[in-house]
Amino acid sequence: MLTHPHDRACWTEHFRWPQLVFPRYRQHTGGVIALTEAQVWTVIAVLAATLAGFVTLTVTLIMRTVTAQIEGLRHEMNARFEGMNHRFDALDRDVQALTRRAFDGE
């Protein structure tokens, strides 16, 4: 009876990893796939394109969010300024009425 998992042989000792490189490029690489220079540049280009796409998407979404927030703030501020304009108009009418009452009696 095995009492510890390390008492038996590891499954990787009996497992054969698939050979993904061309026969003339086969060498002991420790299980790492060997790439040609063209393949390396292709991988670099794919990663760079992916990074550029994610940066573009992120900037676009952030700009849309910021623009929407600014538009919302603009509408709110316009509404508050309109409210203040109505208050000042009402105050102006009241002051004019008091002025007429006070100076018409002279």
Kindly name the structural category.
mainly alpha
Query: Ends: how far apart?
Result: 119 Å
Listing every helix as H and every strand as E from the N terminus to the C terminus, the arrangement reads H
Q: Write down the overall geometry.
A: rod-shaped
Biggest beta-sheet profile = none
Low-confidence stretches: none
Share of β-strand residues? under 5%
Fraction in helix? 55-70%
* Number of extended strands: 0
Provide mean pLDDT, rounded. Answer: 81
Kindly provide the radius of gyration, computed on alpha-carbon positions and rounded to a whole number of angstroms.
38 Å
SS element count, helices: 1
What are its keywords?
64% helix, 0% strand, mainly alpha, 106 residues
Give a description of the structure.
The chain has one helix and no strands. The chain has one helix spanning 37-104.
Topology:
Layout: H1 37-104
Short summary of the structure?
The chain contains one helix and no strands. It has 106 residues and is mainly alpha-helical.
